[in-house]
From TrEMBL:
Domain of life per record: Bacteria
Coiled-coil spans in chain: none
InterPro entries in UniProt: NAD(P)-bd_dom_sf, Sc_DH/Rdtase_CS, SDR_fam
Pfam families: adh_short_C2
Keyword Oxidoreductase applies: yes
EC nos: 1.1.1.-
Signal peptide interval: none
Protein name: SDR family NAD(P)-dependent oxidoreductase
GO MF annotation list: oxidoreductase activity
Protein family according to the UniProt entry: Belongs to the short-chain dehydrogenases/reductases (SDR) family.
Keywords annotated in UniProt: Oxidoreductase
SUPFAM superfamilies in UniProt: NAD(P)-binding Rossmann-fold domains
Length: 250
């Protein structure tokens, strides 16, 4: 019997990068995984890759920052599967911008996806988990939710919000059998990070900041999501686990 047999897991931002890896890990450990993403093309490719490996997955197109789309997606997933046991609340965006130059629209979009979207999905799923009396929610934060980094004021603010949202949810939902934790990755190689930094910048970054001497892989983060969703983490809630190759040890 696999760890997540007979479990329904929902993964947002599952089209690529860390979200795809989380979905693969849950599926490999026996869950039926529902992939959610805003982009039809990457969502379809992600689903096809996992189906080709023989995993049990399905997909729903939705923008987590739009409440009508979130409501529709979660309602239909619940109707179809009858339960949601695990939520990997992963969808997020990032780009660099000096604080003094951030346009209001850019600020709003960052907060809309990374913080508001996380809240919309978590709240709707937590209502279902409360009825079930059991569930595990894992919110994607970042080391940038714990310490500042120049040119990321909007991103840092959104991820700092996720860390405290997580703690508050854990306090309120524990009595309903729902555990809520956050994961704070450092530098992970994904399509997102590759779109921001050149290979030279990454190499300098590793030398200066990462004791393990390498950037992380999506799988390094997916394993921590799987741990937090599993019974091995049965007494862990309200925690934010850093996965950064030692960067915050400095
Ligand atoms: P990515 O861009 O490679 O993948 C993100 C996925 O989310 C994409 O498939 C994208 O289409 C989807 N998405 C974006 N906006 C969405 C929306 N509004 N609704 C639904 N889906 C949406 O990014 P990644 O590097 O895999 O990052 C995943 C998460 O991990 C993000 O929350 C990010 O902030 C966080 N994170 C990443 C790193 C890193 O170094 N890559 C570090 C710390 C935290």
């Amino acid at each position: 019997m696999k760890r997540f047999s007979n479990r329904i897991a929902l993964v947002t931002g599952a089209g690529q990068g860390i979200g795809h890896s989380i979905a693969e890990r849950f599926a490999a450990e026996g869950a039926h995984v529902v992939l959610v993403d805003i982009h039809q093309d990457v969502l379809q490719q992600s689903e096809d890759r996992l189906l080709a490996k023989g995993y049990s997955v399905s997909s729903r197109l939705a923008d987590v920052s739009k409440t009508d789309q979130v409501d529709e997606a979660i309602h239909s997933i619940h109707q179809e599967h009858g339960a949601i046991h695990i939520l990997a609340n992963n969808a997020g965006i990032a780009w660099q911008e000096a604080f003094l130059d951030i346009k209001d629209d850019n600020w709003r979009r960052m907060i809309d996806v990374n913080l508001n979207g996380m809240f919309y999905v978590a709240q709707r799923v937590a209502r279902i988990m409360k009825e079930q009396g059991v569930g595990s929610i894992i919110n994607m934060a970042s080391t940038n939710g714990l310490v500042g980094e120049a040119r990321y004021a909007h991103y840092n603010a959104s991820k700092g919000g996720v860390v405290l949202l997580t703690k508050t949810m854990a306090i309120e939902l524990g009595v309903s059998g729902i555990r809520v934790n956050a994961v704070c990755p450092g530098y992970i190689r994904t399509p997102l990070s590759e779109s921001i930094d050149s290979p030279e910048t990454v190499s300098e970054y590793i030398d200066r900041y990462i004791p393990l001497g390498k950037v992380g892989k999506p799988e390094d983060v997916a394993g921590v999501f799987a741990f937090l969703a599993s019974d091995d983490a049965a007494f862990i809630t309200g925690e934010s686990i850093v996965v950064d190759g030692g960067q915050l040890a400095y």
